[in-house]
Amino acid sequence: MAIETSVTDSLIIAGREYHSRLLVGTGKYKDMDETAAAIAESGAEIVTIAVRRANIGQTPGEPNILDVLPPSRYTILPNTAGCYDAETAIRTCRLARELLDGHKLVKLEVLGDEKTLFPDVIATLKAAEVLVNDGFDVMVYTNDDPIIARELEAIGCVVIMPLAAPIGSGLGIRNPLNIRTIVENAKVPVLVDAGVGTASDAAVAMELGCDGVLMNTAIAAAKNPVLMARAMRKAIEAGRDAFLAGRMPAKRFASASSPIEGLFF
Amino acid sequence: MHIVLNGTPTEIADHSTLADLVAHLALTEQRVAIEVNAELVSRSTFASHTLAPNDRIEIIHAVGGG
Questions:
Q1: pLDDT digits (tens, 9 = 90+) for B10-41
Q2: What's the complex ipTM?
Q3: Which of B 11-50 lie inside 8 A of A, CB atoms?
Q4: What backbone phi and psi angles, to 5 degrees, belong to B6?
């Protein structure tokens, strides 16, 4: 009998098929070489970037992130990091679309507070509606509130991305029950975005049924980012397989693994 | 004439187009996107977009981010 394994378990985002369920950011690395090496090791096919003012007249010839991570090889996911209102997030997405020759996929995040970097969900809802109506494929960073997640899906966001914990905190999945509820409710992919600290956190997210995980600091701020990128790739794959396999029910007391029958003493 | 380029007061030749400015800054070959007075200007219209005094110009590019 053949053992059923999920050889065609792909992630579909905005009609495009991906084989990796790990999405990575490109910030906080030591240099471009380390960025490229870690991202290659992660196996990620979707990478986030930020859009910022060009350095006019400074360091000409400096490599751009898009030279290191060419759009021909990676799906570039421009973010709206640093935006604290709907209007600047929308402007940022339109600039990114122009920058990337009409590319429609964006990561929307509208922040509410510098200390926590928690999303301003009211502004996020407003911006999401404008962007969806403007033809963008919106992957949206939100809190772990199933009601807000449901509203963002109803607006037409293509991926819902609840935080596991504050951005860059590495605290892991703080509210697994809400993440599970969001996953169970959603008809679009759900990715944990932000808060993962180490490989086991990523595996937990996948075991909860998430379709993937987006992370940056957990890899970039590791002592050895390239090795951590590999650990994350394995954790995402292991967690996904464990979810698909269906874990055993947890029990309070023991259940012997060796047969009782045939004991000779 | 006086413009504000990425937040910095800057002098450029009168009647410059966006294409002139981009060439002057040696950014013609670079992947950038531009807003003039908070409105996106398509790359295809840089050559026909004439700048006016006190225009606020933002030239942006991609950087690493999460």
A1: 999 999 999 999 999 999 888 999 999 999 99
A2: 0.93
A3: 25-27, 30-33, 35, 38, 40, 42-43
A4: 45, 45
